[in-house]
Amino acid sequence: MELVFQEQKLEYLCKILCDTVSQEQTADVIIPDSFPDAERVVDAFGTLLIRAEECGADSAAVSGTVQAGALFVGEDGSVQRVDAEIPFSVRRDFPKQTDDCMLQTNCHLRTVDARLLNSRKVLLRISVSCTMCVYAPKSCTCYDVSEPAPNLQLKRTVLPLLTPAQLGEKSFTLNEVLEVPNGKPEIVRLLKCLYRTEIEEQRMVGNKAVFKGNLTVHALYAGEDEELCTYDWSLPFSQYAELEREMDEGDLRTGLTLTGAEAEPDSQFGSRRLLVSASLLAQCTVFRVQNVSVIEDAFCTDAEFLPTWEEWSMTGILDQQEFRETATAETEQTAQRIVDAWILPDEAAMQRTGGQMEIELPITCSVLYLDEDGKLQGRTLRPSVRMQTQVAENAHCSVAQVNSGELFCSAGSGGISLRVPVRVGVDSVAEHTFRAVSGGEITPLEASGQPRPAVLLRLTDREESVWEIAKSCRASMQLIAAANELNGSSVPAGTLLLIPM
């Protein structure tokens, strides 16, 4: 007799490409004739902008620019700015899977530095990291028997896996007129403007991925008498991306990338207002828990059962953790005052030791300060944060997100001290290969002519699972557990068991 199992389809998005590429680019910048000769470079900075994303059936590409700049002190003591648009592009091929592929990217600026080639030329160098993830729809089939007969014993395993189910995107622009508060000097010259994004709340509402957050606009400018000042504005936003279907119980994760950024004072001769336009791309991923039910083995207590097997692989997130750490750094250089500081998180390095993963996240911090003689100087600090987490044998870790809080940087006779709170989201991801019973043939046992005993006594000579004992005796697991008051799935060596038959 053929035993037919019920089929259950599991549909999810399979990650067919996930690759991180780091790229360095340089640009020579000629100092304009109207500027004095450069004496020393004191700062380098940049804003990464995504310009285009492409995803085909067998390749993915990302391109963009970095609005890079440098501040230098001229021979007359003035602070000047030079900048350049530095392009970058990344492309990766993958085996053709389907025409219905979707791309999500996470690109960030790792480092920016600058140095003088001569008094009239500055070399700008950037390092960009791009992670490209390509998803394609995939389905697999699980097999089960909803109401098995008493003589059919099934060994089930249910593994809850968090898998991506839907993707969505939303482009939006923030146009704001920002006011410098009273008590702060007005903006005479804007020296640099940088941006930081943060998601504060996100959830699914029907078929909409709703997210709220803030865009921090950080400005360094020269006020009256060339006094250097900084100020931060927080621009809240609330947006949503429409998805193909409703998923009220989905776990939403939203990443933000700048696609355009412009900032300028509303007057060339001093202003208290800064005109800012920032375009952002929100990429939303909805995860849901898939309970993968697998019948690992089966037998009949009163017949022979010849199983049919199916094998497949499935990748899912086993665990999500958030670490809150503080990066610290100190120097021995005497400083009168901190003028400005800004950080860039780098790529995380991971090292596995047995069942433990050690994660180190380097951070680059550019600090502008006045030395003991009152001269403007620049210094790059490179602290890091370290985290540890337990991982399964078949799992690996990936950094899902990095958010930095308000940094604290102080100066004194003992040097410069830096403290940066950092929140790091880490996923533990594993690929599981399942071998499951999908059906089978049941044939009657040949009559032996001997009566079947009602009960057996069995002494275990080693630690055995209840399933192994039941299968070897053609007995019911439930009856064995009840007769011997067993609570666990295994029995230690030297245990005398009562086996109901």
Give a verbal description of the structure.
It is built from two helices and 26 strands. It is mostly beta strands. The protein folds into four domains: 123 residues, no CATH class; 152 residues, no CATH class; 145 residues, no CATH class; 50 residues. The strands form eight sheets. Strands 1, 14, 20, 21 and 22 form a five-stranded antiparallel beta sheet that branches. Strands 15, 16, 17, 18 and 19 form a five-stranded antiparallel beta sheet that branches. Strands 2-7-6 form a three-stranded antiparallel beta sheet, with no helix packed on it.
List the helices and strands and how they pair.
Elements: E1 2-4, E2 6-30, E3 38-55, E4 59-74, E5 79-93, E6 102-118, E7 121-144, E8 152-179, E9 189-205, E10 208-222, E11 228-242, E12 251-265, E13 273-300, E14 303-330, E15 335-345, E16 349-353, E17 356-371, E18 376-381, E19 384-390, E20 395-404, E21 408-412, E22 415-444, E23 455-459, E24 464-465, H1 466-473, H2 477-483, E25 490-491, E26 496-500
Antiparallel strand pairs: 1-22, 2-7, 3-4, 4-5, 6-7, 8-13, 9-10, 10-11, 12-13, 14-22, 15-17, 16-17, 17-18, 17-19, 20-22, 21-22, 23-26, 24-25
